[in-house]
């Protein structure tokens, strides 16, 4: 029985959310041999090569309504308490397509005849897709695949479109209770979900990367190069970058003046710093280039939810990592075993200086082993199977 995965963006791996979508899609297709991915055409002209290459995938684009139809869908979503930012992406065409393909699967496998056969699941990718699936027939199994527990942090960001903390929590509570099952990325988000909606059925399906296809790199201690890979259009990453540039690096340069910082990822309009020791690379086609000739990776996040995919990616590349405790909160990493954890500018700079001087490569090797065990696509296949 094939599942139907529904997303509100054309599937292209250009953000952490899309990388999670890819990992989920790969795992779903592997467990059943086939997957229908229904997506609203938005953000890109067509799916990228990585999604098209998933064995057994069927890609079904949906053109959302415009004009009056879109306005009515938005108004109905807002009336149901869906925050503005999510309501703008709600499309009746998306839910209709999801049910149509799921019903086709039922008919092919006997599940629609009431004879006890299985029914195809509809898996909503993120809160906007979840809100769009509210009108799905109750008899249809709905799974909500979350990137974060939104109400745990989003109201603290510069995001007026999600409304107040109370309104966001009320929406998320309804979404958790509407879904037959919710997949959260971490134990912390699982606990928060159950505090918000004790009757919800929640399991942890962590963020993953394609560990098997990532060739680990050899750290380059002599380079004294630090890399920060992120989508800098995302506010928590921008705030982490400011923390790094304004507070950490000046302290680090007092101890290791030759240390250099490489910034990789979309969202930077120009050089992030006039200091020549800060290299602003921007978006790269081959992410492996970001990690070449690097001594240590950093994840200096001070806010945000879930578990940072770039943290998981750096683990998979086998690089030593220095991160804040907040960044590591959703992961099974241990300080001194898989990475170095430090909070505050003084401690973060000291941890970086120690790693640059001592070059503890075992951190990277143990981090890679953890990625293989916990954060690979193969590791979540049993978690997403019906």
UniProtKB/TrEMBL annotation:
The keyword Repeat does not apply. Pfam families: Glyco_trans_1_4 (PF13692). Its EC number is 2.4.-.-. The keyword Transmembrane does not apply. Keywords: Glycosyltransferase, Transferase. Signal peptide: none annotated. GO terms for molecular function: glycosyltransferase activity. This is Glycosyltransferase.
